[in-house]
Amino acid sequence: MNTNKTNEDGDKPREGVRLIVGNIKYTSKYDALVQKLGEFAKILDLHLPPGADGMQNKGYALFRVAADHVDALLKANVVLDERILRVQRAL
Fold first, then answer.
1. Which residue has the higher pLDDT, 25 or 11?
2. How far apart are CA 73 and CA 18, in angstroms?
3. Positive or negative CA dihedral for 32, 61, 91, 88?
4. How confident is residue 1, by pLDDT bands cut at 50, 70 and 90?
5. Taking a C-beta distance cutoff of 8 angstroms, is the pair 90, 62 a contact?
């Protein structure tokens, strides 16, 4: 399972604002999450940690978005796999 999105040069982008999204179903897929969040903001990179079994995820993801998209994403009602996702600024 690919859990990291990189920029066109293959390098990890460092610009943007770090956010965390929680309440993800353990069975949700990386591509579906990127697509859903991408409806609200330009996703610069995203890490969806795998669970202990390596097949499911841990229920949260860390990602970066362009600074001008943060407010829209924090206010959005993002639903994936019948769950309302919680998006917050990462510390």
1. 25
2. 12
3. positive
4. very low
5. yes
Instruction: State the CB neighbour count (10 A cutoff) for residue 69.
Output: 19
Domain count, the chain: 1
Cα 44 to the center of its chain, rounded Å = 10
Entry pTM: 0.82
Q: Which residues contact 60 (CB under 8 A, 6 or more apart)?
A: 20, 21, 22, 24, 49
Laid out side by side, the sheet with 86-89 consists of 43-47, 60-65, 17-22, 86-89
Q: Which domain holds residue 77?
A: 17-28+38-89
- Residue 24 falls within a domain, yes or no? yes
Q: Per residue in 26-44, pLDDT tens?
A: 999 999 999 999 999 999 9
